[in-house]
Amino acid sequence: xxxxxxxxGESTPARVHFRSLPEAGRAEKFEALAGTSLHxxxxxxxxxxxxxxxxxxxxxxxxxxxxxxxxxxxxxxGVMPGRTWVIAPxxxxxxxxxxxxxxxxxxNKKEMLFHPHLRxxxxxxxxxxxxxxxxxxxxxxxxxxxxxxxxPMNVPQRYGFRSFDRxxxxxxxxxxxxxxxxxxxxxxxRQIYATAPHDRTPTGGPALAITSLIPDLHxxxxxGGRVFPxxxxxxxxxxxxxxxxxxxxSAPLGxxxxxxxxxxxxxxxxxxxxxxxxxxxxxxxxxLRIPLTVDADLFAQAVRLGREIVWxxxxxxxxxxxxxxxxxxxxxxxxxxxxxxxxxTIPDSPERFPQDISYNGDxxxxxxxxxxxxxxxxxxxxxxxxxxxxxxxxxxYRRRDRERPVIGDRRPPSPLGxxxxxxxxxxxxxxxxxxxxxxxxxxxxxxxxxxxxxRIVSGPTLxxxxxREAGVIAEVPS
Length: 478
Prior knowledge:
three-stranded antiparallel sheet
């Protein structure tokens, strides 16, 4: 409802008031509306600045924490391939798709297989006859169109497709609509990426995810998000945190904070379900905020815990430290972890290619087609990233029928995407076991993260006011 009194002018911002209906059924909402008055005390004031959202002022606690994007110097979109056939959970599918594309002699069919990006019904930036001047850092680049390329496919690169779902991509600038060259140019064996929702509110599970791989646009949970790299260069010499933030944090702590320390701290604080639940009301206005403790002991505890979180999210690729219980390689639960017995081997014959996955809580058994994995806890099975069940979503890209419904009036994807293995691959089983072990260890750490966050928010923190006064961050919205 909008109202304008006589005598008001365009130079004065309007007063905005807000109230929420109860989180209940439709009948209860209508009942609440019937009892609503413009003069009762259930309305709260919204911020008065010109570009503020029509939402209540955030709690003083929440507003005092710096926003995640204020802590980093750069954040951007992940890779937007624009065509599904350039990504697969195995490399042999990509090789077969490339060869099929090359073998097509009919120009119209070949263009349909390539699946060009359309603008106004015509091929857009990336199309079959496009000659791309620059390739992706670290990968072979052919300075000719795909239509004229008779050479081999670029060697596939492991790719952060979704949280806990590592797939493969053809690293070829001619095939990817928006590759985000900055991500490829700054990629390295030490690079780490955090991904988090940007224009949406996390609804459950960790509020951010981490990967050592160049991430997809939809890495966090399949619905967009932003990417926050640790390093700003491929040599890992320049960190990507906002200038001055590490110095401002180091001063009250009494020791020098490293970029890896701060990244691990953020992972410990936000990459767990209690963060999402604790700040659920504040997160209704999208955008994560990170409470930065100035308690040296708490900070050190968070760093130790965060390094393990990063190690798990990256499948052991980052922050490995055998002395700290983080050996190199795929993480494993210390005991009673997921295991495939001889009788439970997932069949690798075409006629028994798994189509369905299910879970039996009584036997703690995960059924994959005619095979199964034992010692799977209910928490592993139900682990989610903002409403997306990780295991079920992971399996949907590897089952026999991988067709997905076309949303709206979008074009169906290229038929190349239907080229896949004729049977379940052993590497699928190995990776599924890896994911289950990782989820099991993450679940075991959640109580520690919850208790740590409780202690952090109960104590002194480095506030947005202090960071703004120091010139480290820009003006903070109310």
